[in-house]
Design goal:
The complex is a heterodimer of chains A (about 290) and B (about 250). With about 290 residues, chain A is mainly α. Chain A folds into two domains: about 35 residues, no CATH class; about 240 residues, MetI-like (MetI-like fold, Orthogonal Bundle), CATH 1.10.3720.10. Chain A has twelve helices and two strands. In chain A, strands 1-2 form a two-stranded antiparallel ribbon. In chain A, β1 and β2 form a beta hairpin. Chain A is globular, with a radius of gyration of 24 Å. In chain A, about 35% of the residues are buried. Chain B is globular and about 65 Å long. Chain B is mainly alpha-helical and about 250 residues long. Chain B contains 14 helices and no strands. Chain B has a domain of about 160 residues: MetI-like (MetI-like fold, Orthogonal Bundle), CATH 1.10.3720. The chains are: A mainly alpha (about 290), B mainly alpha (about 250).
Chain lengths: ~290, ~250
């Protein structure tokens, strides 16, 4: 009896977690792939096999293509600008002063606040009539913007919110990277009388580039899933200008009950995320050798 | 936001903006609170978040212990499965999980919000790393004293890993307290809705946008997190940074 228990104890220990994972993560992925080859409206009892028709349909579907384009634009700008600004901010506030401690807390707090609150706060700031942002623009004599209300600026307004939300977290990660650079490298550079720019280009940047790579990939994975701000601030509009991939899946699944389409779009998201994840692990194994 | 939450409606829509309101209107909070079943939302949020924390504690600790200390058939495969789960976002699987819950008749219940998060791959990974650092001699000594494996786990391993466990729980609390996406998808009535979903409904209150009420509502959502943040700021920042650096 006790021998038997001995043998099976580890399985008993991992079982609860593994059951949850299989039931709610692994199996659903399989089911989604299965559905992507079928046509189903959620109500009728039979799911009709349609092969690759859903994917072919998606490739001609203007709304889907628009959401894909928006997702890429969103990802490109939000990740690009966040990374550059976070790097500059990190280089600036990476000083062990009391001020730094304060800034650290201040830039970090958006990261733990619910996206619901953040979205609502920015809706108010971006209100075309009464919003603080337009008031600020007017003060400096700049033309006012329609922000979320116009199809031309809505997506960029959402990008702005995404940058504001993630910049603090990114900055802290880069600072952690900066602080792990051995100081003797800079001392050697100072002996050689190298300029500040040279020491940045030859020491700082190469030393933190692994950290930057990771941040960029993590941000890419995150921004392909953008949903909350869109749902609360614009619902994909005006004129589809802020419709993104996850929002598309949500709408087609839950509003129009075209589960085949929605699942196919999900499979496309799965493929994008898988590529990024493989890249992530590839870099992780490289970095282990690097250090 | 905090300032706007105590303004009057006319003060929120003047241009240029009023920075400091004439009178501080705390009644905005009661107005927001009364504009929907917020007590229900608040209780739902508490039930869901705390249940997730408790369940996670019971699934994570044994799993991390087994992965850290035992060699068994298929251990690598099962650990790989855990790591794959770590990479699957909820935004990818909500549709099939929704269908699953609907066939079980569990839609719009607390269980639909709790069960998928009863285990946490990231936490298992982190805790496993911590458990691996506990010196083997300590376990040997306990085994000589005839301590059972369960006793070793809860009397030695858990106290040794206390900082990691607290960090992970804080992490989970913030994630699920703030979560909007999952409850939005899985709930249809106020009976099981959580705070973030309830508050987002304030955007379309009848008779135009009432910014002061919206901001007051958001304070209900944000204040608990801010309190936790100020109490455990260093802990939390370290936890999040560590996630990124790994």
């Amino acid at each position: 009896m006790s021998r038997w228990l001995e043998r099976f104890r580890p399985y008993l220990m991992v079982a609860p977690a593994i059951i949850v994972f299989v039931l709610f993560f692994i199996y659903p992925i399989g089911y989604m792939i299965y559905l992507s080859f079928h046509e189903w409206d959620f109500i009728s009892p039979d799911k009709q096999f349609v092969g690759l028709d859903n994917f072919a349909g998606l490739s001609e579907h203007p709304e889907f293509l628009k959401s894909l384009e928006n997702t890429f634009v969103f990802t490109f700008f939000s990740v690009g600008i966040t990374t550059v600004l976070a790097l500059l901010l990190a280089l600036w506030i990476n000083r062990p002063t009391r001020f730094y401690g304060f800034v650290q807390g201040a830039v970090f707090s958006p990261h733990i606040i619910s996206l619901v609150s953040i979205a609502m706060l920015w809706m108010w700031l971006m209100d075309p009539q009464y919003g603080l942002l337009n008031w600020g623009l007017e003060m400096f004599g700049l033309p006012q913007s329609q922000w979320l209300a116009s199809p031309e600026t809505a997506l960029y307004s959402i990008i702005l919110v995404a940058i504001w939300k993630s910049i603090g977290f990114n900055t802290l990660i880069i600072i952690a990277g900066l602080q792990s650079i051995p100081p003797h490298l800079y001392e050697a550079a100072a002996l050689d009388q190298s300029s500040r720019f040279t020491s940045f280009a030859k020491i700082t940047f190469p030393m933190i580039s692994p950290t930057l790579f990771f941040l960029i990939i993590m941000n890419l994975i995150g921004s392909f899933q953008v949903f909350e701000t869109i749902d609360i601030m614009t619902q994909g509009g005006p004129l589809q200008s802020t419709n993104t991939l996850v929002y598309y899946i949500y709408e087609y699944g839950f509003r129009f009950f075209q589960l085949g389409y929605a699942s196919s779009a999900g499979v496309i998201l799965l493929i994008v995320l898988s590529i990024l994840t493989v890249l992530y692990f590839f870099l992780m194994s490289k970095r282990v050798h690097y250090q | 936001m905090a300032v706007t939450s105590v303004k009057s409606l006319s003060e929120t829509i003047t241009f240029p903006p009023v920075w400091i309101p004439e009178t501080i209107r705390f009644e905005n909070f009661t107005l927001a609170w009364d504009s929907g079943p917020f007590l229900r939302y608040f209780v739902n949020s508490l039930i869901v978040t705390l249940s997730i924390l408790v369940l996670q504690l019971f699934t994570i600790v044994p799993a991390a212990y087994a992965f850290a200390r035992y060699r068994f058939f298929a251990d690598r495969a099962l650990f790989a499965l855990t790591m794959i789960t770590l990479m699957i976002p909820t935004q990818l699987i909500f549709l099939p999980v929704y269908l699953q819950f609907s066939s079980w008749g569990l839609l719009d219940t607390h269980l639909a919000l709790i069960l998928p998060f009863a285990a946490n791959a990231f936490a298992i990974f982190m805790l496993r790393q911590t458990f691996k650092q506990v010196p083997e001699e300590l376990l040997e000594a306990a085994r000589l004293d005839q301590a059972s494996e369960w006793k070793i786990m809860y009397m030695i391993m858990v106290p040794m890993a206390k900082p990691t466990i607290i960090t992970l729980l804080l992490f989970s609390f913030i994630t699920h307290w703030n979560d909007y996406f999952w409850p939005l998808v899985m709930t249809t009535t106020d009976a099981s809705r959580t705070l973030p979903v309830g508050i987002s409904a304030l955007t379309n209150v009848e008779g135009g946008v009432a910014w002061h009420i919206m901001m007051a509502g958001n304070m209900i959502l944000v204040v608990p997190i801010l309190i936790i943040f100020f109490v455990a700021q260093r802990h939390i920042i370290r936890a999040f940074v560590y996630t990124g650096v790994k």
